[in-house]
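User: Can you help me understand a structure? I only have the sequence.
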Amino acid sequence: MIGADGLDRWLVDYQESGTGRSAGLRPLRDVRRAMVMFSLPAADLDVDHRDVAAQKRVLREQMNDMGWLTPRILAHLDDTPDFYLDQVAQVVMERWSDGRVGLLGDAAFSSSPLSGQGTGLALVGAHLLAAELAAADWDPQAGFGAYERRMRPFVEANQEIGRLHARSLDVSAVSARSTPPAQ
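Assistant: Let's start by predicting it. Here is the structure, written out as tokens:
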């Protein structure tokens, strides 16, 4: 097991310059365990979301030559009881409601983990949606409309934070890698 004993921070994040790849290590209460987060640019990543073995294989191929603790972490990939792989994306919708159905949080306006604003947006959105529905005497059309008019500028600003973060990783020159580099 990797273990996080001796880790004196909430999170240690290693970012590889010029590649857009990163690895993060976060200790858990059980010092024999840690949470690991890998990030890599892979616009053309095509792996079945149900095939965990293939996802782990792709992760190894894409990250095996990264420095820091990455080789040590990847050595324990098959031992992990929890594994999740997905793309980082934003949800940009023209409208957040239809009839009596309204969306909020990631379902309506995910700003992506790169913004660091998902929880805050969801909480502000829930509060504002409830306030606007109450102010509209629970008329969905009026309440949803007022909610969206007030919330959309805040959402768009936070989504831009995610896009700025992605651009700051300077991954424009990185070509997609479908095979690991020669060793």
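Now, to help you interpret it: The helical segments are 52-63, 70-74, 106-109, 118-135, 140-168. The longest strand covers residues 22-27. Let me know which part you'd like to focus on.
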